[in-house]
Amino acid sequence: MTADAATAPTTGLTAALAHLDADRDAALERLFALLRIRSISTDPAFRDDCRAAADWLVSDLEAMGFAAKAHATPGHPIVLATDHDSDGPHVLFYGHYDVQPVDPLDLWEGDPFEPALLSRDDGSRYFRARGSSDDKGQVMTFLEACRAWKAVAGRLPCKVTVLIEGEEESGGANLPGFLDAHAEALKAEIALVCDTGMWDAATPAITTMLRGLVGEEITVHAASRDLHSGFYGGAAANPITLLARALGQMHDAAGRVQIPGFYDGVPEVPQSVLAQWAQLSFQAETFLGEIGLSRPAGETAHSCLEQTWSRPTAEVNGIWGGYTGAGFKTVIPAEAHAKVSFRLVGDQDPDAIRANFRAFLAEQMPPDVRLSFAEHGGSRAISMPVDAEPFARARTALTEEWGRDAAFIGCGGSIPVVGLFKRQLGMDSLLVGFGLEDDRIHSPNEKYELASFQRGARSWARILEALAAR
User: pLDDT per residue over 166-215, tens digit each?
Assistant: First the structure.
């Protein structure tokens, strides 16, 4: 190293990263303090704990210099904090402080709300606690990045608004109204969402596709009462048979959904994205082998990754009717029921999917059989503009931190808040998370890798600077 290099001033980013490395023990203690709060949002018995988690976050944000407040809602508080001293762009960070129930408690290897830092034979370390990965550990990666920037530079690279809700795990009923009421304060150039995962333990990722969802519950009404199958069998319509036959017609032998108009609005994935997916270390046999299966069951013209990320689906989630108790009862039931869900992509219209599905079933029923339906929600798919500058900058920042090209990946599930941000605030979302598939979120012994926490904070420090670059 030359003398000039040795005396050259460090950049803000270099100093922020060094501060994060030096402050690791204190950062872990802060996270553990938050993890000890039993903020289970779905159980009224933990209402005070949810308030305590919101108050803890307000106090921590205020200590960093944010203007912060826990806003009351008919449910649990929503934390809103701002630090707009920067000349950079405005970003909105979203996370949630509530957690899932811990049942079954006897499967936990320790107290779910007493964080334990554990080591493996290979030297890697992780901590176990409810909420460690979903979502308190992820939230604190961003807050620690902000803390480091404030400590070394006195201000953040970007104008930052922080929104942390307390009902994500219990439906988020009060968030849409809060977004409407605070729309002007919340509108930013982009939302940052840290509630997703990496491709693998060494490869960071940005989730750019979220499938939409339509849920339907169907009842087939046949005879006016349950019937003796000896007296009426062969003559009376059996609603279980009719429903099973109709649902069995939803797919052809190649896995394509046969509901008219189902593929309207389904785009083809760009070849550049398919090429990037092909470079990922993914084997369908391994993916399915972990659950005791071996062959993809979806559309044969598309790869397993396409089937789970970029193709629409129609799945029967439950079917029941007649006698299902112990022993045997020879009955033709008066009713049969099923629950069916559709995952949507591209510009598929949830209302059109629902109407076409109902018509598809009705056409297969005899004249004296009646159908009724119960709607279970509907939302459009979300696709992010991966060629937009914020996504390119974030990908570069992640690549620089992890030493591997960050992957643009899809997600087979849905994250409702991303749709809310798009519809209500007109914002795209940058979904960057550091969870892993084996983090056991929502299950006993939830964990988060120490590397995910520490390098996640470093990643956010880099992303904030990258987004602020002019």
Answer: 999 998 999 999 999 999 999 999 999 999 999 999 999 999 999 999 99
Which of these, 348, 337, 334, lies nearest to 374 by C-alpha position?
Answer: 337
Nearest to 438 by CA among 449, 427, 429: 449
- Contact at 8 Å (CB) between 337 and 255? no
Number of Cβ within 10 Å of residue 198's Cβ equals 27
* Whether the Cβ atoms of residue 196 and residue 432 lie closer than 8 Å to each other: yes
Distances (CA, A) of 111 to 36, 102, 118, 128, 139: 10, 10, 14, 9, 22
Name the E strands within 211-312.
212-221, 227-228
How many residues in the chain? 470
Whole-prediction pTM: 0.85
Strands 90-96, 212-221: pairing kind? unpaired
Residue 60 contacts by C-beta under 8 Å, 6 or more apart in sequence? 30, 143
Q: How far apart are CA 432 and CA 186, in angstroms?
A: 19
Residue with tokens 């009351």: 72
DSSP letter assigned to residue 76:
S
- Summarised one tens digit per residue, pLDDT across range 103-125 is 999 999 999 999 999 999 999 99
Alpha carbon distance 159, 51 (integer Å)? 27
